[in-house]
Amino acid sequence: METIKLASYDRVTELKAFDNTKTGVKGLVDAGVSEVPRIFHHSSLKLSNSKPLSSDLQHITTIPTFDLGGRVFEDETKRKKVIQGIKQASEKWGFFQVINHGVPLDLLEEMKEGVRGFHEQPPEVRKQYYGRDFSRRFLYLSNFDLFSSPAANWRDTFSFTIAPDPPKPEDLPEICRDVVLEYTKHVMKLGEFLFEMLSEALELEPNHLNEMDCSKGLLMLNHYYPPCPEPDLTLGTSPHSDSSFLTVLLPDQIEGLQVNREEHWYDVPHVPGALIINIGDLLQLITNDKFVSLEHRVLANRATRARVSIACFFTTGVRPNPRLYGPIRELVSEENPPKYRETTIRDYVAYYNAKGLDGTSALLDFKI
């Protein structure tokens, strides 16, 4: 019987049927599904934690949190201490959290509610934005790699590019328009500040990474993770690293993000008012592996309320940008030769998107 069931499973037809609803995973939940459809089933290997750790070791090894002092350090010693901490975190984890980051806390809450508000609009409103034309200014869909990934994720997303070519206000849905434009202004300023600190952590001039246009582009992905009826069968986001230079993530209080370090999945704890920062592939490439872009994933949502997260990626993405990026000259030597060939951001991201979130790093294809 089992053989007959497997033979009758037409995955492509089921993927198309799901996509044609134009209401995403939220539509499934609203319809009252009690079982996760097969298109969302991940292999047990992908779902497992490959190398369990004892609880006392888990306590010692957690993502560090740094106080940015409102982005104004009057005490030079404190500033140097934070830069040293960020350096170590970027080399070891590729992840850290920041508090007192200069983005108003009430704006963080408004941003999360704006994202929630969009995803919880009536289906007929959401449907008008749904599609897979990635040239559109504003895009709402479920799983950008729905038709190429081994398994779909229990998540819906709306996205758009903020910089260097900002959207017109009318390109954005009214329900979240004002808060999105206000929030991303703050994120751009925070990004420039973080790139200064990362430059100094690399023992470069403070303006080095900004002058390389690392903070020039900003892509925003606004994720919605509905409650999952069978969270042990699927994921919210498959294991992947980010294709950006840097990512600024605003999570809500529902945890689920995990980082893979030395074959173990570590939970990223909720820190009130914090933003999660992680190194992307392009920063690992230009630092010649000095900073690491670690694999991470999001577990399926076990809570009774939907989880939201807002990811801002510093990248120009697939937009035309002729600049070539390779390992920074000051960071290579005879003893430490370049590990990567030069590439444009567009070529890197095109390869990354075509590959999909399959659990392997796109950087491998750019190694010398």
TrEMBL record:
Specify one Pfam family: 2OG-FeII_Oxy
Q: Name one GO molecular function term.
A: metal ion binding
Does the keyword section mention Membrane?
A: no
Task: State whether keyword ATP-binding applies.
Answer: no
Q: Which keywords, in A-to-Z order, does the entry hold?
A: Iron, Metal-binding, Oxidoreductase
Cofactor(s) named in the record: Fe cation
The record's listing under InterPro entries reads:
DIOX_N (IPR026992), IPNS-like_FE2OG_OXY (IPR044861), IPNS-like_sf (IPR027443), Oxoglu/Fe-dep_dioxygenase_dom (IPR005123)
Enumerate the Gene3D superfamilies for this protein: B-lactam Antibiotic, Isopenicillin N Synthase, Chain
Source species, domain of life: Eukaryota
> Which residue numbers delimit the Fe2OG dioxygenase domain?
216-317
PROSITE patterns registered for this protein in UniProt: FE2OG_OXY (PS51471)
Family statement drawn from the similarity comment of this UniProt entry: Belongs to the iron/ascorbate-dependent oxidoreductase family.
What is the name listed in the Swiss-Prot or TrEMBL entry for this protein? Fe2OG dioxygenase domain-containing protein
List the top taxonomic levels of the source: Eukaryota, Viridiplantae, Streptophyta, Embryophyta, Tracheophyta
